[in-house]
Amino acid sequence: MKTQKVLFSFLFLLLSISFAKAQTAEDIYQKYADAIGGKSAWDAVTSIKATGYATMGGMDFAFTQTSKRINKVLLEIIIQGMTMKQVYDGTTAWMLNPFTGGKKPEIVGEDMARQFRNMAKIGGELLNYVEYGSTIELLGKEDFDGTPVYKLKLVTSDGTEIIYFIDAEKYIDLKSISKTMMSGKEIESTTLYSNYKDVNGLKIPFTMDVKTKGGQTMGEGQIIRMDKTELNVEVDDAIFVMPSE
Fold this sequence. Notes:
Blueprint: H1 2-22, H2 25-35, H3 39-43, E1 47-56, E2 59-68, E3 72-79, E4 82-88, E5 93-96, E6 106-107, H4 110-119, H5 124-127, E7 135-144, E8 147-155, E9 161-167, E10 173-182, E11 185-199, E12 202-213, E13 222-231
């Protein structure tokens, strides 16, 4: 009887080790990529145009974000008839901000430029981690609001750390926590993803609840709701070009 217990314990240990080895960071990544439509399908997307509203401080404002390969993005935020633009043209990051009295577009600093470059990545940081020289690490499995999740840690080539909470059954992203430096301070941003919808076979979250700690940013305490997302729309490269005046 004692021998059987020892044998059972040994077999259980072997199974546990085998299971742990099977659950690598790359395994979870591949299942995540498949769950949101597949890497090849996302790679075939030439442009994305998303429109919706964001709520911050009790106020709603409309936005339109247009992304185009390779690494171009235009985010337009409309408040009280004025439009702020945040743009990355593939080389230069610039902004037009009438809310601070700015009448001319200006090139932004590296900290903000990094944010704009990240916005330009169609499919996001995790899906494209190999292309952008990032690394991933499986931190383990835990419970998140009653749902088992895998925690994947991604470190970008510029040192930004992002932890993704991947649903252990559906393999979609439920939450991310990013840490990056801005103006010498560490900024932590937590995003909850929900209301996933199918857009031409791709799974996209239409609601994002963003909270930021460590600095005063546009992302602090805002809920983003997308009304419409269009894929492969015609986009003129001219919209990303910084005006000379």
